[in-house]
Amino acid sequence: MEADGFVSRRTSVETPGVDSRVAGAAAGAEFRWLGGRLLDATGGFVGSLPPRMTGEQDFAPVLHRATPETSTSVEPEIDYEGLPQGVATSTHMLAGAVAGIMEHCLMYPIDCVKTRMQSLHPEPGARYRNVMDALRQIVRTEGVWRPIRGVNVLAVGAGPAHALYFACYEKIKFSLSDAIHPGTNSHFANGVAGCMATVLHDAMMNPAEVVKQRMQMFNSPYRSVLDCMGSLLRREGPAAFYRSYTTQLTMNVPFQALHFMTYEYLQELLNPHRQYNPSSHVVSGALAGALAAAATTPLDVCKTLLNTQEAATAAGAVGAAAGSRHISGLGEAFRTVYRMGGVPAFFKGVQARVIYQMPSTAISWSVYEFFKYIITKRQHERRLRGDRDGDK
């Protein structure tokens, strides 16, 4: 009886402390330590208390949150695949511009070879067996700087063109994917985003492509980029800079649709968790670029013909008509290519085009994804610092 009376008195003392649910982690921790000490001293006392009075279940979560270990718990995983909400469009544009400039400038010598190998009637000094043979001959006969002649105009055009390209692609891709399959990747959305981004990209890039390809041709008569632009304006008018625009769109829309869909599909296979993985970006970009480049080579040959107007100097080979007028339009370009070389002419330079596009798209995607990762990581760290400062 005395023991029971002791238990009752002890319970009346302890219960208010348990039921009051002491606010604050520190107070809760002190209470449990004190209770534990008293319980040890009385021996078997815990067993005589009802579970409601012990408050063990109620206090455990509070104590868990108060411990130092959980305050430095695992940080949320960085979702870099889509840049953080609220990131300015200029972020996408900066990453895209750097990626585009690096892509075109690093691969420019191969692009020069591609342009020459697509010539429908190359002069004897410009007949090449393969890409490496072309580079050796160009350097040996025309100088070490010849393969990069005109790279400056391409760099100037590639910056704003790729800035619009990637910003438009990211915006449309995520908006359309959310509308079709919220929270998932949509190949249709990737393809449509790539096509829409191409329209803006080519509008900025087409004049630079015209000047670049005229500078790349064998025995190009232009002393500099400005000389080439001035000559085009005087002799052919402003329309010369956009004569191949529709052909370029006709080529680049399927190219980019195939390119983006292949890249995103390969990312699902090689990088299913969509983490920053440079090797997967390089491999996916290279394979996507190679496939799209090979499939659209005939259109690229027609684009080169429209940009260089090579048939004007080969009127004798073509026949009566072409001499003084310019080739305009995709249909006329197709007919001219076929008359001058048949079906094989549509695949002239395919090797150089694939060799150019594989590292080109690999560089573009790896640089772009790297910038996305760095920008996202910094924003994530800045947000975490803000949260910690707010907690203090």
UniProtKB/TrEMBL annotation:
Annotated membrane topology: Multi-pass membrane protein
Pfam families: Mito_carr
One annotated GO biological process: iron import into the mitochondrion
One Gene Ontology CC term in the entry: mitochondrial inner membrane
Solcar repeat intervals: 87-175, 185-269, 276-374
Protein's cellular compartments: Mitochondrion inner membrane
GO molecular function, one term: ferrous iron transmembrane transporter activity
Catalysed reaction equations from the record: Fe(2+)(in) = Fe(2+)(out)
InterPro entries in UniProt: MCP_dom_sf (IPR023395), MCP_transmembrane (IPR018108)
Keywords, ordered alphabetically: Ion transport, Iron, Iron transport, Membrane, Mitochondrion, Mitochondrion inner membrane, Repeat, Transmembrane, Transmembrane helix, Transport
Gene3D superfamilies: Mitochondrial carrier domain
Family of this protein: Belongs to the mitochondrial carrier (TC 2.A.29) family.
Main function: Mitochondrial iron transporter that mediates iron uptake. Probably required for heme synthesis of hemoproteins and Fe-S cluster assembly in non-erythroid cells.
This protein's name: Solute carrier family 25 member 28
Organism classification: Eukaryota, Metazoa, Chordata, Craniata, Vertebrata
